[in-house]
Design a protein that fits this description.
alpha/beta, six-stranded parallel sheet, 2 domains, binds NADPH dihydro-nicotinamide-adenine-dinucleotide phosphate, three-stranded parallel sheet, Rossmann fold, 11 strands, 11 helices, 43% helix, single chain, 297 residues
Length: 297
């Protein structure tokens, strides 16, 4: 058996096209141009890449886009002031602070400085609470992207057994809430879970958001399951010569080759969940702009 590959790039392209069409409509009919501000502190190469791509894709969708790059030694009060200024800027409808921040900055305090209406990463306590309460919320981008892929692949998710490995506020917890809201029976697994392989084998839907390269093995997967691999891990190349030359590549949290043999569907990494994250960020910014303009409750 060979699993079908869920190509996140195709789904992300479709979502970006929908966002672009909606932005054009909002600009033409309401004079409203959704605006996204991205803030990056420091020089982490992966974060720089993500931030560049977010800015470029926002512009390509016809949105207003600003990127603030701050030095790694930016003080907490300077950071809070910038976020507060963006929060007060009527041209900005969504604010994303690229995480992780340098250790000396208090992430919780920075996120708390973004008003829930502009929190397009869905990280504020208000948005996390609204998601749990089943109220309209801005929901974290990667989890929303996972749900879009699952619904596009499986259709109705009602009654499916879902196992989410990882319980971070950014990924694991919101994915579990979205799956629960979609009427799945959800298990959250983590580093203290006993007999993780057996727990994973119960899953019709297995979501891996761990940050450990290729941890989920083929024999942890129920035959025919849908496997969503959120992990982005940089590892040395398999070939010894390339590895010795310091060459690295991205792999997921799932052993992809083994998963292909057992699963019904699997997302590749890269090219699965990753592209969806930025597309959902644009979608969330449009949603935020519409709500702030009173065009959607
Ligand atoms: P965190 O480090 O915040 O959380 C990791 C989670 O995995 C924790 O809940 C931890 O459990 C759990 N875990 C760690 N080791 C094990 C183990 N051996 N067995 C079972 N569970 C374990 O990571 P994130 O949630 O932020 O990210 C997860 C992965 O997703 C990373 O690879 C990250 O790069 C990627 N990512 C990808 C994105 C995308 O756009 N595709 C966006 C965001 C993240 P415990 O709580 O017990 O410590």
């Amino acid at each position: 058996m060979s699993a079908q590959i869920i190509d996140g790039r195709i789904h992300a392209e479709r979502l970006r096209a929908e966002v672009g069409a909606e932005v054009a409509l909002l600009r033409a009919e309401h004079g409203l141009q959704p605006g996204l501000a991205v803030v990056l502190v420091g020089e982490d190469p992966a974060s720089l890449g993500y931030v560049k791509s977010k800015g470029e894709q926002a512009l390509a969708a016809g949105m207003h886009s600003v990127t603030h790059r701050l030095p790694a030694d930016t003080r907490q009060d300077e950071m809070i002031r910038l976020v507060a200024d963006l929060d007060a800027d009527p041209l900005i409808h969504g604010i994303l602070v690229q995480l992780p921040l340098p250790k000396h900055l208090d992430e919780n305090a920075v996120i708390a400085a973004i008003s829930p209406d502009k929190d397009v990463d869905g990280l504020s306590v208000a948005n996390a609470g609204r998601l749990v309460a089943g109220l309209p919320a801005l929901v974290a981008c990667t989890p929303t992207g996972c749900l879009i892929l699952l619904k596009a692949t499986l259709g109705d998710l009602t009654g499916k057994r879902a196992v989410v490995v990882g319980r971070s506020l950014l990924v694991g917890k919101p994915i579990a809430q979205l799956l629960l809201a979609a009427d799945c029976t959800v298990t959250m697994a983590h580093s203290r879970t006993v007999d993780l392989p057996a727990v994973c084998r119960e899953a019709d839907i297995l979501v891996a958001a761990v940050g450990r390269p290729r941890m989920i093995r083929g024999d942890w997967i129920k035959p025919g399951a849908c496997v969503i691999d959120v992990g982005i891990n940089r590892v040395p190349f398999d070939h010894p010569e390339q590895a010795a030359a310091g060459k690295t590549k991205i792999v997921g949290d799932v052993n992809y080759k083994e998963a292909l043999e057992v699963a019904g569907w699997v997302t590749p990494a890269p090219g699965g969940v990753g592209p969806m994250t930025v597309a959902v960020l644009l979608h969330n910014t449009v949603l935020a702009a519409k709500r702030q303009a009173g065009l959607e409750i």
